Amino acid sequence: MSQNNSKREVACTLTEEQEAERREDVRARLVDHYLGYEEHENGVVVRFDGTDESLEALAKFTSNELQCCAFAEYEIAVSPPYEETVLTVTGPDGMAEMFQDGFADRLDVESD
């Protein structure tokens, strides 16, 4: 069942303390693997290098996100020649902006 229902509330359930811990975890696990992102109509596509470490870190990140941002759909793709691991996050109106501001933009700043 698709969660791209515009009536779903876009809200993260993390406390400020949990948000700080998540931010540090993303910094420690994903920043070094980050390649870039693109915003699409219903979400964002975030690209990472194709290493085993980035795939494992992205799977852990996604598992955590399912707990606090259950309004979104997450898809991890790894395709030959395995040079990139791609996370696509889609959802209702407002989701793309939330993930861009809270995740992709943060990766951009941290990776500079």
From TrEMBL:
Compositionally biased tracts (Basic and acidic residues): 1-10
Region (Disordered): 1-23
Name of the protein: Zn-dependent oxidoreductase
